[in-house]
UniProtKB/TrEMBL annotation:
The keyword Oxidoreductase applies. Keywords: Dioxygenase, Oxidoreductase. This is Ectoine hydroxylase-related dioxygenase (Phytanoyl-CoA dioxygenase family). GO terms for molecular function: 2-oxoglutarate-dependent dioxygenase activity; iron ion binding. InterPro entries: Phytyl_CoA_dOase-like.
Length: 269
């Protein structure tokens, strides 16, 4: 029995302007990547797995800033054939390869990021702080599983900040929010903050700084993300404890200096 909806394996037509926007700004938001029907087919399973696998049980008011930002559940694909089907989508992976300008991409890992009703800000940060990669050819696709108006806390990007090296040593924290808010403003990086229509997704480079406002609605902001890396990515020596943990968790058996090749990092396109 095949689970795959045809849309997940068909090509999306990526315009030249989208590719150049991504290269210049470090992110791009794309319309109609997934149909409402496809999202509706996978959202209940993704949400069910988030509820089942979530380990954050403290009330919102007792959590730190990171904990208030979202419920974060990783590698759902290992627990669900239906989520594996979604995460393995050649349509989504091919867009990643085209934007990165590489022949082939692997899965790094997936993350469900659910910002609860009343969930706080996601502080300014760059994802690649957490990843031990030798180059910047890695990208996250951010797939909202509902229409995401401004008051629900959609992702906001500092356009062009993927070339800005200040603040790359900061984890998601109150400090990163404060330091980067000021530094990015001083450099005149435009903050691009827009709602997402259903079926609209964004791709951002590992070094593109981004944050998200709180969720002021009475429903959770449900988002599925998939991180892709150049299939030929070399693993760099970890420079912080998070990168050490990532190497062990997401690339088992691989070592610094290796090309990423663990069974948990299949080629998707």
């Amino acid at each position: 029995m095949t689970l795959t909806r045809p849309e997940l394996v068909t090509d999306y037509t990526l315009s030249r302007s989208a590719v150049s926007h991504f290269a210049e700004h470090g992110f791009v938001k794309l319309r109609n990547v997934l149909s409402p029907e496809t999202i509706a087919a996978y959202e209940p399973e993704i949400t069910g797995k988030v509820i089942e696998l979530n380990t954050q049980h403290l009330p919102l008011e007792e959590r730190d800033t990171y904990g208030k930002a979202f419920l974060q559940v990783m590698n759902l694909w290992q627990d669900s054939e239906q989520v594996l089907d979604f995460v393995s989508s050649p349509r989504l992976a091919r867009i990643a390869a085209q934007l990165l300008g590489v022949q082939s991409v692997r899965l790094y890992h997936d993350q469900a990021l659910y910002k609860e009703s009343g969930g706080g800000v996601t502080p300014w940060h760059a994802d690649q702080y957490y990843w031990p990669f030798a180059t910047d050819r890695c990208v996250t696709v951010w797939v909202p599983l509902q229409e995401t108006p401004m008051e629900m806390g959609p992702l906001s990007f500092a356009a062009g900040s993927h070339v800005f090296e200040h603040g790359r040593d900061l984890p998601i924290s109150d400090e990163s929010e404060q330091v980067l808010q000021q530094a990015l403003a001083e450099q005149d990086f435009t903050e691009v903050s827009e709602p997402y229509e259903l079926g609209e997704v964004s791709y951002h480079l590992g070094w593109t700084f981004h944050h998200a406002p709180p969720n002021q609605t009475d429903v959770p902001r449900r988002v599925m993300t998939i991180i892709y890396v150049d299939a030929a990515m070399e693993i760099s020596a970890p420079v912080n404890k998070f990168q050490e943990a990532d190497l062990a968790a997401w690339m088992p058996g691989n070592q610094p200096g290796d090309q990423i090749s663990s069974p948990m990092n299949p080629v998707l396109y």
